[in-house]
From TrEMBL:
Spans traversing the lipid bilayer: none
Pathway info: Carbohydrate biosynthesis; gluconeogenesis
EC number per UniProt: 4.1.1.32
Binding site residues for Mn(2+): K248, H268, D315
Entry's Gene Ontology molecular function annotations: phosphoenolpyruvate carboxykinase (GTP) activity
Gene symbol of the encoding locus: pckG
Binding site for substrate: R76, Y239, G240, G241, S290, N405, A406, R407
Name listed for the protein in its UniProt record: Phosphoenolpyruvate carboxykinase [GTP]
PROSITE patterns, alphabetized: PEPCK_GTP
Domain Phosphoenolpyruvate carboxykinase GTP-utilising N-terminal: 19-260
One Pfam family hit: PEPCK_N
Amino acid sequence: MSISVEVPTPTSHSDLAAWVTRIAELTQPDRIEWCDGSEAEWTRLTNLLVEQGTFTRLAKRPNSFYAASDPSDVARVEDRTFICSEREEDAGPTNNWIAPDEMRRTFATLFKGCMRGRTMYVVPFCMGPLGGNISQLGVEITDSPYVVVSMRIMTRMGEDALRLIEERGAARKARESEARANEGRGKHDHEHGDFVKAVHSVGAPLAPGQADVPWPCSQTKYISHFPETREIWSYGSGYGGNALLGKKCYALRIASVMARDEGWLAEHMLILKLTPPQGEARYVAAAFPSACGKTNLAMLQPTIPGWKVETIGDDIAWMRFGPDGRLYAINPEAGFFGVAPGTGRSTNANAIETLWGNSIFTNVALTDDGDVWWEGLTDEPPAHLIDWKGRDWTPDSPEPAAHPNARFTTPAEQCPTIAPEWQDPAGVPISAILFGGRRATAVPLVTESFGWQHGVFLGANVASEKTAAAEGKVGELRRDPFAMLPFCGYNMGDYFAHWLEIGRMTDPEKLPRIYYVNWFRKDANGRFLWPGFGENSRVLKWIVDRLNGVADAVPTPIGNLPASLDTEGLDIAPEDMELLLSVDPEVWREEAALIPPHFETFGDHMPKELWDEYRALVQRLG
Ligand code: GTP
Ligand code: MN
Ligand code: MN
């Protein structure tokens, strides 16, 4: 194949130059641009997006934009997400699998000429602080300027990342020639290349003279991952989770495979810093399924006097053992891609403060004076809006003004509670890991695991209820182990085994303690028993006090529960509090009965230790 335009390759990294040329020959763009991540580039591309009608500049927020997607392209497409491992078994029972050869054949046709009439952007990026040991490099090729400007917020993108890729390449070459000189002594470590290759197209080529639409996309969609070669290919969608390939595709699906192979963890977790009135700061990571409160907890404003919460990350954590044997976490991202609806001053004031400028708002509503609005931003909606589908909207309109999955894309450094060490390349030492989901029934406000293996058992059983059932009755559960079900790049049975293995890699005393929390328990009338949000600081306080050995716990069949919780100044009925901290053995026997069918899904890959934990639970329940 050849291409009629010149393919610029302004890099000393020969693999990168060759790959960019290959993709250009396949996709046939009209122009090719290497992105440097500069202010000037941002200005040029955002102006272009305004001109094309993708962006509306917001009069009320400096340097910020409103975008409305095609109504069919509003979320991650799990049924079009594929793990293309060599063996089907390695993708596991919870991932869609297509054989890599077959997938590559499909893509050879699908991507052929798919960037005609468009510009191909080459976007080098770094996940994690530039130059950090835990950080990783990638290059995304995309035909969407919306993706480029979003990547500039969400990752360290441009010139600096490209230099790091080139340095890695040069260092590898030096090692290889030395190894050759020593005739094979000292093996080289480059089998996966110096960066992850990610190709994205909206899948909407333009014929000569054909007008573009504000949000090009295709009805055919593939979000495909090749774990062995550490490649990502995404076709047909412009939505963040499908198109910003540094995020879910790389930082979770591909990174989880790297983490398995290299003895670390890539997790769907927020990271926060908690400082008590006296005493040392602690770092906590927490995994909750999507829309279960990670961004909220990461930016929490404590209601208990003297306690301080600061933010390190709100969605993804990479954790590695440090030289002292403790687990250190970094936030691989540079921005927040958060759910807008429900975010307001009363629920997450720090998120609202973060959004003052330099932000992109997708599928929210537009106000008459050039600002954005969504359900939950203010108590009273404005009298008139343009909704996310571009229609006039008033409070009498039957549909919400913003799409329920409308998102903001905003720089993390603008968060008023961002911790000073959030960019520390060495990461922060994690003292506690929290799991949780939406459970109207059964699950107490907080439970402490008996140890690492029991904690892994709790993580493997993370679930949310599909329907809000009444207290005393276990509802239909959607299991989402470790909140990683949509994001694990390999067999989840093996993933559980990897977590158990991590627990054997250091002194047990140095491992984070594991907790299970539930902000979502309801009474018989369907009312939340726990006020949540800032009041969750009371639970964090108990956890820190436990770590410091100054809080009591009551052992129960499912784990240790607080002997008491600080409820000073909290308006909650004693019987509600009692229910929140209770374990009903009858309900829990039903709950336990739901575990074997879940575990059996993973067949031989299910670690025996977790079956042991299940049997121990049943025994304790009597
Ligand atoms: P992703 O970004 O998609 O991974 O999800 P997330 O885990 O960051 O979810 P997010 O913080 O955006 O979840 C928001 C939803 O959870 C909103 O509907 C909030 O109102 C609700 N929520 C968050 N914290 C609490 C809480 O403590 N109590 C209650 N009742 N609801 C909460
Ligand atoms: Mn998420
Ligand atoms: Mn979030």
